[in-house]
Prior knowledge:
Elements: H1 2-13, H2 23-34, H3 51-65, E1 69-75, H4 82-95, E2 99-104, H5 117-127, H6 140-152, H7 158-170, H8 175-191, H9 194-204, H10 211-218, H11 229-242, E3 248-253, H12 256-259, H13 264-282, E4 289-295, H14 297-301, H15 311-317, E5 334-336, H16 342-360, H17 368-378, H18 384-387, H19 390-406, H20 412-417, H21 438-441, H22 443-447, H23 449-452, H24 463-471
Parallel strand pairs: 1-4, 1-5, 2-3, 3-4
Amino acid sequence: MSENTSQMALSADAPAAKPRVPKRIAAVIINSLKGGVVPRIGLPYVTVGRETEIRALLHDLDLIANGGASFRFLVGRYGAGKSFLLQTIRTHAMGKGFVVADADLSPERRLQGTAGQGLATYRELIRNLSTKTRPEGGALQLVLDRWVATIGASPAGAEAALATACAPLEEMVHGFDFARILRAYHEASAQGDDERRAAVLRWLRGEYRTKTEARGELGISCCIGDDDWYDYLKLLAQFLVGAGYQGMLVLIDELVNLYKIPNAITRQYNYEKILTMYNDTLQGKAHHLGIIMGGTPQSIEDRHRGVYSYEALRSRLAEGRFAREGMYDMLAPVIKLNPLTYEELLVLTEKLSDIHAGYFGYERTLGTEDLVRFLQLEYGRVGADTHLTPREVIRDFVELLDILHQNPGTTIESILATDGPGAGDAPSSASALVATTSAAGNTANAAAPNGGVTLAGAAPSSSAAAGTASTIAGASRPAEGTSSRDFSGFKL
């Protein structure tokens, strides 16, 4: 009996085995981050920091679910984490029962245009329509089929349920035609007419180019175009609630492509469309709809070409007189992203080390001291204080992991010692700054569940960063005017 008790005690003291990230997801994470892009799946495994921003945006989701609407701008430099945060919120929203549509603007995709650029953005949004059960996009037919099933299961009967579902839509702009399209899909589903169902899907995706074409196939004398696609997004958001969802979240990234439009009048038309969306959401004209746009500081704040060049938007979005450096208002329409702190970057590199080792099937050998030395070298570059972004740090780190794995005889010390330009700027020995013990080396992993790797579908708790911060004393961002090369704060 005593022997069994001692064995149980030993097993309780032993560290829990770290669950491996599924290889398909690990491959997407590693390849995407090395290529400098944001993975669309597996984000909970690598999310660190951003608790304040995420909390503010999750508050917006509660507002949308209750019938309201919201509009936000996420502002940050290239590589600062705008797209990553957008995709993180996308994952959270789908988990809460929202339908999410996302699109990146480009020269061919704008908010307004004379050659189909606005409609191209709408098509991209609908193509990327995602739900919890269809996170990769293409969920339009799934949503419609769920709506048809809901109508058919109504105790009041299909006809009465259909009339009740379409009534609030018919009161909105273009709502009568939208309701006719929904009735056509319901009728085609009941009759097993796949050709007519496909025609309805084409119409909702904005693929009919002329009204004559739409009238010939569906008997509807209108089609979605450049000028009215946003009205149909509002209709779709209202419809989704009747289909059993919480609402709709629209994510639009790369606003810098509006800034790059050479023609001033065309730029103003696009900014006027943003103003229309902003006013609708804040004045209560839109329901169950959230819009988040991402852009660089220049694309937002430039008075000559940016969003602030449109005076009606600048007067609504610019900071008020009481805004101060270091004090942030997360309830404002513009959220400016803060840089990740050093301890958050350390937690992130530990997570990536675990994912890389699990994917390629080797035992992780990099300790906390090695990770700190890597960060020392990264922030020892000239100009790192103001120009280095998380994207560059992550890309360099994944490259380092790949090189170490493919060259077994190489050590991290030899690579970092011969890094080249900037190598001499970093402190020569991390051991002078870091006192590592086996217990402290695992602190960041112990702070997050399962060794810092969150189970699929669950966002990591903020305790990961907090736990690491407790062991890395004073490793916050340097004060204004100081150099980030001083890593004396990294003490374990």
